[in-house]
Amino acid sequence: MEKLLKEFNVPAKHGSEEELSLWRNHVTPVKNSRRRFRYVANLDKRSAVQEQKAKIGEKLQACFVLYMEELKSTDAGDVLYEWAREAEETLQEDKEKEFLNEASAAGCGSESSQLPLPMISSTYP
């Protein structure tokens, strides 16, 4: 075992998959390996998960590119922009009405018209 430890300098954490698999192949004749290597990561599952993440990432990227091209070709970006601008204007009007109602309910009376109105920061130009 000392010979194996001298030959393999595998870090305790975050070792590369090649080093770990090589070390595990040489240490196979261990008694009760399930108990001995209980908390060691399963390299096959780890690589399968990495492959699955890569496939999903490629599919998402392709969908995003197609979606952006569709927006450019159908001129839907302008429609979405106008819809957002209209929604923001109605939201601003609702906030102003709500603020004035609260001010009149609080007893401000005729002074409510002189109160500063809350401004919503516009995220759209």
From TrEMBL:
<dbReference type="InterPro" id="IPR024750">
    <property type="entry name" value="Ca_ATPase_N_dom"/>
</dbReference>
<dbReference type="Pfam" id="PF12515">
    <property type="entry name" value="CaATP_NAI"/>
</dbReference>
<protein>
    <recommendedName>
        <fullName>Calcium-transporting P-type ATPase N-terminal autoinhibitory domain-containing protein</fullName>
    </recommendedName>
</protein>
<dbReference type="GO" id="GO:0005516">
    <property type="term" value="F:calmodulin binding"/>
</dbReference>
<feature type="region of interest" description="Disordered">
    <location>
        <begin position="92"/>
        <end position="125"/>
    </location>
</feature>
<feature type="compositionally biased region" description="Low complexity">
    <location>
        <begin position="102"/>
        <end position="113"/>
    </location>
</feature>
<feature type="domain" description="Calcium-transporting P-type ATPase N-terminal autoinhibitory">
    <location>
        <begin position="5"/>
        <end position="47"/>
    </location>
</feature>
